[in-house]
Specification:
Blueprint lengths: L2 H18 L5 H20 L12 H13 L2 H6 L7 E13 L5 E13 L11 E7 L6 E16 L9 E6 L6
Antiparallel strand pairs: 1-2, 2-4, 3-4, 4-5
């Protein structure tokens, strides 16, 4: 992350705490985002889209239903991210905006890098193999792929709105396209 982007993000977090939620914590949000990413990615992998209603926006869920049904098993397996397989997490873009009706929203794009042992073909562009771990002898190798995902979380801060974060964008480059 560039220093300017980092400062801009921290400034937005300050605005969120001052104007919307005095108890907002970047660390707590990141922990919750990682947990949500892990749960949602596993449900996507298992094709249990009906369990995502409360977590994912209706528009994103509809698009996912179409994409998931067309995925080969190896790509679908590669969507799943265990909590302990998440290697790195960072904020992307933070936005504060108002709609035409005066409702207040905050959206935070989170980027995740995670290890996955799915049997992906070697020619999958956009991913990086980082480990070939040898267990026991040379004939037993386990491949791990370092994959990325972008999830955007949105919350409405209008008075009376539910205090829940909803996922409004899900991207698993080269897997969900």
């Amino acid at each position: 992350t560039s220093p300017i982007a980092w400062l801009r993000t921290r400034f937005y977090y300050l605005l969120i705490r001052v104007y919307f939620d005095q108890e907002f914590s970047v660390e707590e949000f990141t922990r919750g985002a990682k947990q949500a990413f892990s749960v949602v990615s596993k449900l996507l992998s298992q094709r249990k889209l009906d369990l995502l209603d409360e977590l994912v926006s209706a528009e994103v869920l509809q698009a996912l239903k179409e994409k998931i049904s067309l995925l080969p098993d190896s790509h679908r397996d590669a969507l799943a991210a265990d909590m302990d397989a998440i290697m790195y997490t960072t904020e992307g873009d933070v936005r504060i905006y108002y709609d035409d009706d005066g409702r207040k929203f905050v959206s935070i794009l989170m980027r995740f890098w995670y290890l996955n042992g799915a049997n992906l073909p070697d020619e999958v562009p956009g991913e990086t193999k980082v480990f070939q771990i040898v267990f026991g002898d040379e004939s037993t190798k386990e491949k791990r792929h370092l994959l990325t995902a972008n999830y955007e979380f949105q919350r409405e801060f209008t008075e009376g709105a539910k205090p829940d974060w909803t996922i409004t964008r899900i991207e698993h480059p080269r897997l969900l396209e």
